[in-house]
Amino acid sequence: MHPRSPCALLLLLLLLVAGPAQLSAQLSAQNCVSRQQVLAATRQLQQLLKAQETRFAEGLRDLRGRLAALQSSASRVGPDAPPDISECSSQPCQNGGTCVEGVNQYKCVCPPGRTGSRCQHHAQTGAPERVAGDPAFSRAPRCAQVERTRQCSCEAGFQLSSTAGDSICQDVNECELYGQEGRPRLCMHACVNTPGSYRCTCPSGYRTLPDGKSCEDVDECVSPQHLCPRGTLCVNTGGSFQCVSPECPKGSGNVSYVKTSPFQCERSPCPMDSGPCRHLPKTISFHFLSLPSNLTTPITLFRMATASAPGRPGPNSLRFGIVGGNSRGHFVMQRADRQTGELILVQTLEGPQTLEVDVDMSEYLDRSFQANHVSQVTIFVSPYDF
Ligand SMILES: [Ca+2]
Q: How far is the CA of 299 from the centre of ligand 1 (A)?
């Protein structure tokens, strides 16, 4: 806001904050205003407003409490209620507490420094006292007498059990509160309610991230200890690991396969006149994927592409397909571009489970079959959706 006349604004502020007497004194000392004066006056006014606001809110709270007490005592009066006798006649309030009459009950308004239903306790100012019965999850409130009202508050993570004078601070169960439907999740995995707070835990095989809420899989395969027996390969999975040993198919006749890498087998060259040999997969590769449970589908899991040998013409046509392991229709294999096919998961997979799907790619040169390649894809679905 940019007032047209700063003098007029200051007059108004000074009138509100200081009152007319001081205003005239200040105005006699100088005729106009500096920016600092305007700022100082607005700050004073803000403080005044804040103080008024706090006092008003306190008054409302007190009134609400009294109204609730009145309502609960009124609701207890039945048609056959005995005649009202003075509950305060026995002088139940100790240590200078003021007894307030209710129906069949009384309430003590305690002086500063006292708390409890009969003002029998010292109000807590140091470490909160644990309340007997449910020691970990309830605490005594911190109470203070503000003017004529008694104000109680709880430490963070606790809430007053009621507005009555003998209320205690009860732990807020954040796990229960946020576990309700439609609420955001507090923890990626499990929530443990603790007095005044909560903590998140992760299942075994996962570590808790520095945010204290998220879980991250532990990659056991990078551990310096070799967890898998000799001759097997370690595959990290969500929450665990697997030891795998991909095997080449046994050859027959003049067809044989050899390992060209830990995850690939290659067929020996076919004799010139052997048609059936040429139609057997030229390469078989092994792929291991780890997926979380219930992934949103469709999602591309795997890509298969052709690579021609240097100096030789590559295939000018490719055909992709699924050759095994798709009896339940979880997957679709389709062309992504001229050189690539992709395996797409089209149905949600719920873990824990392990699936295997075999896909293949046939290469053609001028419509004449050249070679076939198979990829065996093993999918480890973790029990959790992270
Ligand atoms: Ca793991």
A: 22
**Which of the pair, 137 or 116, is modelled with greater confidence?**
137
CA of 67 to the centre of ligand 1 (A): 58
- Domains assigned to the chain: 138-198 (no CATH), 233-306+315-385 (2.60.40.60)
Q: Per-residue pLDDT tens for 217-245?
A: 999 999 988 889 999 999 999 999 999 99
Ligand 1 center from residue 301 Cα (angstroms):
19
Q: Cβ contacts of residue 187 below 8 Å, gap of 6+?
A: 175, 198, 200, 201, 213
Query: How far, in Å, is the centroid of ligand 1 from the Cα of 216?
Result: 9
Dmax (CA) for the chain in angstroms is: 118
Instruction: Report which DSSP code applies to 356.
Output: E
Q: What is the mean pLDDT of residues 113-129?
A: 52
Task: For residue 242, report the distance from its CA to the centre of ligand 1, in Å.
Answer: 9
- Global model pTM greater than 0.85: no
How, if at all, do strands 368-381 and 283-291 pair? parallel
Give per-residue pLDDT as tens, 160-190: 987 766 788 999 999 988 887 788 889 999 9
Which of 225, 232, 329 has its CA nearest to residue 288?
232
- Give residue 227 CA to ligand 1 midpoint distance, Å: 12
Centre of ligand 1 to C-alpha 290, Å, is: 9
The rounded Å distance from CA 382 to ligand 1 centre is: 9
